[in-house]
Amino acid sequence: MDCAPRIDISDLGSSFLQFSYNGKPFLFHYSTFELFEIDPIVTSLFNKVNNNPIEALNSQEKAALREIRSLTQIQKKDRSPTSPSLSAISLELNHTCNLRCKYCYVFANDNHILPESSPHQMRWEVAKSVVDFFLNQLTPGSSFFIRLFGGEPLLSFPLIKKIVSHVEEIATSKNITTEYLLITNGTVLTDEIVSFLESHNVNLAFSVDSTEIKHDKLRPTSTGAGSFKKIEENRKHIKKSNIKKQPIANVVVNRQNTDMFENYSFLINSGYKTVNFSFIFTNKKEFQLETADFPKLKKEYIKIRDYILEDLPNRLSTTPLISDIFQRLKNNIARKNFCGAGKSYIGVGMDGSFYPCHRFVGNTKFKLGDPVSGINDSARRLFLQPHIESRPVCAICPVRNVCGGGCGHTNLMYNGGIEEPRELFCLLKKFEVECALYLLLHEGEIYETCKKGEKTEKSRESKSKEGYKEAA
Ligand code: SF4
Ligand code: SF4
Fold first, then answer.
1. Is the predicted pLDDT of residue 127 greater than 90, yes or no?
2. Distance of alpha carbon 267 from alpha carbon 234, whole angstroms
3. Helices (H), 272-376
4. pLDDT at position 106, please?
5. Three-state DSSP class for 59?
6. Do 114 and 94 contact (CB within 8 A), yes or no?
7. Considering only CA atoms, which residue is closest to atom 6 of ligand 1?
8. Which ligand is nearest the CA of 89, by number?
9. Closest ligand 2 atom, CA of 408?
10. How far is the CA of 422 from the centre of ligand 1 (A)?
11. Dihedral sign computed on CA atoms, order 161, 167, 170, 174
12. How many other C-beta atoms lie within 10 A of the C-beta of residue 188?
């Protein structure tokens, strides 16, 4: 008869992510971020745990499980702010664009540089009242991030000039640091615009999807011509300017554009330092990504990972897709929220209404207020809870402290509520974590100490795989 004390294994699947590195099996612990190289008995034990009731384990396996538990009792420190201040906004400056991207969900006309009275543009009085509202809440020494968004925001350049100049004036007098990010299609840059962006330290993200032929197919102008050449011309123009940070490339991954590695390597070789990937959000079925696309996307991730691996120190920062997670794991920074939507970040519509983020703009069910009535605290409450605790699926996910709980808006679009994550999103996120762990192990910082059976990192109290061997 087995006299070992009963072990609760119900949460093992939610505590460990299993993955392999160079053919060797590893476990990643959700809370301590510990990595354990495991031997075959622990691997088979985990398979049993996944497929069988506790009764199927023998006494050695139960002892091993107890040991695993004892190795992972350290809880990560929660570094989430308890009452975050509203320090970041996205301004939807207009509803107009000179391009006709095939997958776009926002579309109006293609006026070039909108007149102040345009119904397709945020009015200056509205913009002023919005930025004043947020600046008034900020204390000296704090920072304020403004995302300039559209449509194509540079078609509202006169409005951008007014907003930035006004914010600078107030921020300087209140000792508030400002940062701007302009999301642009990269086709509407003049000398005047470049010089303004340069002198006000505005960072740029260019939407550029792929090689010229593929990009032009997806992102033509309103006349049907290609837009790639103009973007390249403008990128080179910016390179010669004194703009401190070169534009990052933002690639929209969609069903017609899943060759992530080809796009990434092409853009890096063209001169972009950073390539960001946005996964499509659209109601156009032919562009929508589905769970069935995961195997293909996984192969693309592997190609990107292996490319970075060839020159880790220089290539890691080329895509936040993996580097953000890598840094989080390396520096032991747990995440209780996926993003600051509704907490520290507000999306502002053209009429000045507040929403949890730029993607919620226009969905009045989620309206959080406006500059006159202020923030509606009860509407905002839903967004103040830590995502990984308030989302039932996330609460038992082994990568929850790295992911932070996923995009509430994606959840809403695909599953009807902000709390239930989309299957494809989770598959990708878990694989992103695996890729980052793979790079970390490659870097040797953790792998070498694991092999020696020592602590995996100075700051972590841990034991090695030797512990499992003893127990097993
Ligand atoms: S969104 Fe998915 S991957 Fe992220 S914590 Fe939740 S269940 Fe895990
Ligand atoms: S809810 Fe989604 S789209 Fe909105 S800020 Fe968060 S991650 Fe971004």
1. yes
2. 15
3. 294-309, 312-315, 320-330
4. 63
5. helix
6. yes
7. 394
8. 2
9. 1
10. 9
11. negative
12. 19
Report how far apart, in Å, the C-alpha atoms of 261 and of each of 56, 272, 374 are: 44, 14, 45
Sketch the domain layout of the chain as residue ranges. 12-77+446-471
Report the percentage of the chain scoring pLDDT > 90. Answer: 69
Name the strand (E) or helix (H) holding 107.
none
Provide the sign of the torsion angle of the four alpha carbons 209, 340, 359, 416, taken in this order.
positive
Nearby residues of 332 by Cβ (< 8 Å), 6 or more positions away: 33, 76, 457, 459, 460
Q: How many CB atoms lie within 10 A of CB 99?
A: 22
- Residues framing ligand 2 (Cβ under 6 A): 338-339, 341, 357, 359, 407-409
Residue 94 forms beta bridges with which residues?
A: 121
- Enumerate residues lining ligand 1, CB below 6 A: 388, 391, 393-394, 397, 399-400, 403, 405-406, 421, 425-426, 429-430
The pTM (predicted TM-score) of the whole model is 0.87
The DSSP secondary-structure symbol of 313 reads: H
Q: Which amino acid is at 466?
A: E
pLDDT for 83: 53
Residue 151, preceding peptide bond in cis (omega within 30° of 0): yes
Among residues 11, 58, 68, 13, the alpha carbon closest in space to that of 38 is found at: 68
Q: Among residues of the chain, what percentage have pLDDT more than 70?
A: 85
Question: Most confidently modeled of 83-87, 274-278, 377-381?
Answer: 274-278
Whether residue 468 has pLDDT greater than 70:
no
